[in-house]
Amino acid sequence: xxxxxxxxxxxxxxxxxxxxxxxxxxxxxxxxxxxxxxxxxxxxxxxxxxxxxxxxxxxxxxxxxxxxxxxxxxxxxxxxxxxxxxxxxxxxxxxxxxxxxxxxxxxxxxxxxxxxxxxxxxxxxxxxxxxxxxxxxxxxxxxxxxxxxxxxxxxxxxxxxxxxxxxxxxxxxxxxxxxxxxxxxxxxxxxxxxxxxxxxxxxxxxxxxxxxxxxxxxxxxxxxxxxxxxxxxxxxxxxxxxxxxxxxxxxxxxxxxxxxxxxxxxxxxxxxxxxxxxxxxxxxxxxxxxxxxxxxxxxxxxxxxxxxxxxxxxxxxxxxxxxxxxxxxxxx
Length: 332
Ligand SMILES: Nc1ncnc2c1ncn2[C@@H]1O[C@H](COP(=O)(O)OP(=O)(O)OP(=O)(O)O)[C@@H](O)[C@H]1O
Ligand SMILES: [Mg+2]
Known about the structure:
Layout: E1 10-20, E2 25-36, E3 41-45, H1 52-60, E4 68-77, E5 80-81, H2 87-93, E6 98-102, H3 105-108, H4 115-127, H5 131-144, H6 150-154, H7 163-175, E7 181-185, H8 193-210, E8 213-218, H9 221-227, E9 230-235, E10 238-244, H10 245-250, H11 255-262, H12 302-306, E11 312-313, E12 319-320
Parallel strand pairs: 3-8, 3-9, 6-7, 7-8
Antiparallel strand pairs: 1-2, 1-4, 4-5, 9-10, 10-12, 11-12
């Protein structure tokens, strides 16, 4: 597959990552497969510690090595394997061909520089624009992300902006060079519900306008329902189910996905107690044998404690890895 023309913008194959810790080896990713088409929003969903950010750091070439290590796998982006690139090539791609948006704009925006200068700098470095056209483009970008009073914002330092404005300014920076891929790691988690919806709408609008692919990372299936075309569910460093959004919500196959869906608060369930999934994601240094979900799974049988379930492709690219699929169980 490597080297062949690929219909995907991003094609992650068998990504296996570990960290060397003081106690032992933390196996953070255990063969992640994930594909993203141009112009598609693919959501990567899972509980805390499941491997979402490690996946995004690998794509961005920001995984600290050591302590991190990519043991196996490929990250094909526009038919180049990002795993094989050297640091200077990675830096060139990051910010130009791959944009990034994080939960905390404060960590990404430099507090010592004005917003306008930060955006212009990116355009000057990556696209070689002259200062004057970079400034004009920065103004257009702020308009594009729905910020008004752009002359003032261009001259503001990050701390002078509200949370929502900072988030929009960070998105403006992320899309400044018209990247083919945007990685958004929990971009709305710190925002209140109204702002959250506005930012999600903005991302969809920008995606359509710029035909970017977006890898949207979240622990929240209710948020993902608003925005995703395709969803992959990650558990203990492995994708356990992947399907288009409609399929995943209407016909979830993996017990973990079913339990995650049952834990979404929605209007119909208001007043009823939410079903939290008992237990938590295993420590990456102590992943259970067999199916890593078996200690929390209501359907687990003896074989689940021994056998790692293969990833099976059901109809229409609906994939799931569970030995008990189809088994009846009671959910209420
Ligand atoms: N630098 C590191 N050293 C050791 N272990 C790490 C390191 N970074 C991540 N890990 C481990 O890798 C696993 C996946 O972490 P990751 O940050 O990707 O989770 P996440 O899904 O993004 O969680 P969250 O929803 O809390 O952001 C965790 O078990 C974590 O402890
Ligand atoms: Mg994370």
